[in-house]
Amino acid sequence: MHPNAQTLTRFYTAFAELDADAMGSCYSLDATFDDPAFSLKGQHEIAGMWHMLCNAARGNGKQDWRLDFNNLQANDSSGHVHWEARYRFTATRRQVHNIVEADFTFCPEGLIASHRDQFDFWRWSRQALGMGGWVLGWAPFFNTQMRRQTRAALDSHLAKNV
């Protein structure tokens, strides 16, 4: 198995176990992360996001958490993983099944340099938010508002856990 594939396997195995420390250790210090909810720079912010999300999943009951990954591919410079998470969304207590395509680049040391998760935000918002997500989840302003809220939650989490 390619060393970068080993990094991704280590990352997603830790994610399935909600081990945010192990997840954060897979990123380079100047890594970037982007998905429909977050745009982050640096290992500190990225690891903080994983800590916040893993804590929420544990708090909602580990029995409601499941992560599966497959189609893992990696070479010297890039990688790809298909992953699916099933969890209870904290704000509404609604069950979510998120289907994600993840793309990566790696630094020479074999750590993640960039990570981009892509998923259908409208599909996610309908599951997580119910009728409000159904009505507004497709709108760009709604996604912008969600990104502001997730950024504020992360900033608060980081301030409390420095």
Automatic annotation (TrEMBL):
Origin superkingdom: Bacteria
One Pfam family of this chain: SnoaL_2
Location of the SnoaL-like domain: 9-115
TM segment ranges: none
Protein name in UniProt: SnoaL-like domain-containing protein
Source species of the chain: Rhodoferax antarcticus ANT.BR
